[in-house]
């Protein structure tokens, strides 16, 4: 196995290992504040559950070299980050939870600064925490909406006379290089770290609330 392929395997193994951290942080959060349940607990649990499934799916698709399906999962993992950020803007998360469970766009809600919670706003604000996020969000959105990455997928490398070959089928089209796979795994891994960081942030906020409540009753 070449060094790059070994690096890819190690990166995928590391990504799979991060599933344990999801379970640990959610478990700790549920037990925080004497096991009181907040709306944000429900949102955090839903995000962690989706993140676990996204990790499994992404790893499988990378191993299959299925770029068309793997790349959009990076965008979905970033969506997890944005939803957790939106919930963090409200003390209990009730408004965000009601919107999510009712199928209402978050853009109908207003942040404390009066701005609507559109994705462009959430992307910009979350980008203040994770500077790389807006660029990766925009790049992977191209796989959600059929644009540059998808529209070029059927084209294979140009032939000797400069003309491009084009084909359709599971074994045709532009190959997904090892370098591109490594870059995709790195992007998904950073998105997953951001999810875990946001989950930890909620855990810390809940724990601080328990301390404040204790001080008020002393």
Q: TL;DR of this structure?
A:
By secondary structure, this protein is mainly alpha-helical.
Order of helices and strands: HHHHHHHEEH
- Number of helical segments? 8
Cα separation of the termini: 63 Å
Helix content: over 70%
| Class based on secondary structure composition and strand pairing | mainly alpha
Average of the residue pLDDT scores: 86
Rg, alpha carbons: 20 Å
Overall form: globular
Strand sequence of the main sheet, in spatial order?
1-2
Strand content is: under 5%
Give a quick set of tags describing it.
218 residues; mainly alpha; 8 helices; 3% strand; globular
Question: If you had to describe this structure to a student in words, what would you say it looks like?
Answer:
Strands 1-2 form a two-stranded antiparallel ribbon. The model has no long low-confidence stretch (mean pLDDT 86). The protein starts with a helix and ends with a helix. The relative contact order is 0.17. By secondary structure, it is mainly α. Strand 1 (155-158) and strand 2 form a beta hairpin. The chain has a domain at 3-81 and 135-155 and 166-217. The protein contains 8 helices and 2 strands. Helix 1 (3-35) runs parallel beside helix 8 and helix 3 (67-88) packs parallel to helix 8. It has helices spanning 3-35, 39-63, 67-88, 94-102, 119-127, 133-144, 148-151, 178-217; strands at residues 155-158, 164-166. The chain is globular. The longest helix has 40 residues, at 178-217.
